[in-house]
């Protein structure tokens, strides 16, 4: 897989620049990325992504996708504890009317600012 960092024209995020991207397993194993120093799993569904070079501010967004072979119907993802040098990525699923923390097979996040 090859993605580059820098100015990209993305229809969903016009005018924003891809500052970093990461592909990791729910177990916190870094698979690939750009401007990513490490990924650390701190709890079920919670991973801290550490940037090699800090982002310009905490006013960035994350485009998150997940893959789960177990047939989850409704994944819920969000960025928590955003800092210029790191970000917590939280993943969960809806089941039985509740949100349950979940480790997905693969998590992709693009960070745009």
Describe the structure.
- The protein is mainly β.
- The chain has one domain: Immunoglobulin-like, CATH 2.60.40.
- 0% of the residues lie in helices and 56% in strands.
- It has strands at 6-7, 17-24, 30-34, 36-43, 46-51, 61-67, 75-80, 86-95, 98-101, 106-112.
- Strands 1, 2, 3, 6 and 10 form a 5-stranded antiparallel β-sheet that branches.
- The chain is globular.
- The model is unreliable at 1-10 (pLDDT under 50).
Could you give a quick summary of the protein structure above?
The protein is mainly β.
Helix/strand class: mainly beta
Gyration radius, to the nearest Å? 14 Å
The total of helices stands at 0
What is the average per-residue confidence, as pLDDT, rounded to a whole number?
Answer: 86
Portion of residues in helices?
Answer: under 10%
**Shape label:** globular
Q: What low-confidence regions span 5 or more consecutive residues with pLDDT below 50?
A: 1-10
């Amino acid at each position: 897989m090859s993605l580059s960092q820098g100015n990209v024209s993305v229809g969903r995020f016009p005018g924003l620049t891809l500052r970093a991207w990461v592909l990791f397993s729910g177990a916190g194993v870094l698979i690939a990325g750009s401007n990513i120093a490490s990924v650390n799993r701190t709890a079920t569904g919670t991973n801290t992504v550490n940037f090699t070079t800090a982002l310009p501010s905490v006013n960035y967004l994350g485009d998150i996708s997940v893959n789960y072979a177990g047939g989850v119907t409704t994944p819920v993802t969000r960025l928590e504890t955003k800092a210029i040098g790191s970000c917590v990525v939280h993943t969960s699923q809806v089941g039985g009317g509740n949100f349950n923390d979940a480790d997905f097979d693969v998590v992709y996040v693009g960070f745009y600012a």
